[in-house]
Amino acid sequence: MRVKYSESIEYKALTLLKAIRGSAILREDFEGLGSYRQISRAINKLIEEKKLVKIGKGIYAKAYLSKYSTTPLIKNGVDSTLRAALKRLNIDFEPGSAEKEYNQGKTTQVPIRNIVRLKSRCRRRIGYINSELFFEKNINAK
């Protein structure tokens, strides 16, 4: 991303993006940089440059371009980033029953969907393109 000034909000947002270790980014991470609209413009510019992708309301993920397609891909994988986003939002969860049974060796069927069982309430849709985080039995914790 080319910026004109090192004091610009876009430049500060880019350096902040590089400094964050995980691949899940929250809008709250950019709060100290400027006003709400300035931050929105900086985030939208990062999305245009394909450095970020939106995976939920106020939730973004670090991205990179594959040499085989023009669609940005999520760093560290989609499934792990979606679960990291839940952790960043302080939402308690555990793996779904199919994943637990597979990890315990009770079944040989590999779980395909990314399903988690919530322990605390979550009313968000978190996903990217065709990969979405599903809640087991579509039940939120109470």
* Biggest pleated sheet: 4 strands, antiparallel
Percent range of helical residues: 25-40%
Number of domain modules: 1
- Model regions low in confidence, pLDDT < 50 over at least 5 residues: none
Q: Give the amount of beta strand, in percent.
A: 15-25%
Kindly report the oligomeric state of this protein.
single chain
Terminal Cα span = 44 Å
Explain how this protein is built.
This protein has 142 residues and is α+β, with helices and mostly antiparallel strands. It has one domain (9-138). The chain is built from four helices and eight strands; from the N terminus they run αβαβββαβαβββ. It has helices spanning 9-19, 36-48, 78-88, 97-104; strands spanning 24-26, 52-56, 59-65, 72-74, 93-95, 114-118, 127-128, 131-135. The strands form two sheets. Strands 1, 2, 3 and 4 form a four-stranded antiparallel sheet that branches. Strand 3 (59-65) and strand 4 (72-74) form a beta hairpin. Helix 1 crosses helix 2. The chain is elongated. It starts with 8 loop residues before the first helix and ends in a 7-residue tail after the last strand. The model has no long low-confidence stretch (mean pLDDT 85).
Brief account:
Helices cover 30% and strands 23% of the residues. With 142 residues, the chain is an alpha+beta fold.
What topology emerges from the helices and strands here?
Layout (H helix, E strand, L loop, with lengths): L8 H11 L4 E3 L9 H13 L3 E5 L2 E7 L6 E3 L3 H11 L4 E3 L1 H8 L9 E5 L8 E2 L2 E5 L7
Parallel strand pairs: 6-8
Antiparallel strand pairs: 1-3, 2-3, 3-4, 5-6, 7-8
Helix pairs in contact: 1-2
